[in-house]
Amino acid sequence: MKDTNAIDKAIRQKCEKEIWFIVDNFLNEIETKLRGEYNNSSFYYLNSPNSKVKFTVMGMEQLKTVLNGMLIESHIEAMLSVKSQELIKKLELI
User: Which residues are within 8 A (CB) of 6 and not within 5 positions of it... i.e. 6 or more apart?
Assistant: First the structure.
């Protein structure tokens, strides 16, 4: 049982790193194109188009934290499922 938990944890960490990489690339584009080229604000307002509820994040680190959390919460289970199936297929080939 410890081995399966360790494998699950390793796959989860790999998925999280993949999301972090995607977010870092996205934020790098914002930093380079919008903030660097146009010296734009570092306040970001996040809200749903169908709601009056919105919140503000200040700076790239807060935006990074929000995006990572949002994407991990939304996609981690699907990513785990796909990567687990990929691992099972690889193990069956041996």
Answer: none
DSSP-assigned beta bridge partners for residue 45: 56
Its pTM stands at 0.81
Collect all residues with Cβ–Cβ distance below 8 Å to 45 and sequence separation of at least 6: 54, 55, 56
The residue behind tokens 């991990």 is 72
pLDDT tens per residue across span 55-89: 888 888 999 999 999 999 999 999 999 999 998 89
CA neighbor of 39 nearest in space, from 30, 47, 28, 48: 30
* AA identity, residue 53: V
**38-53: b (≥16 Cβ within 10 Å) or e:** eeeeeebeeeeeeeee
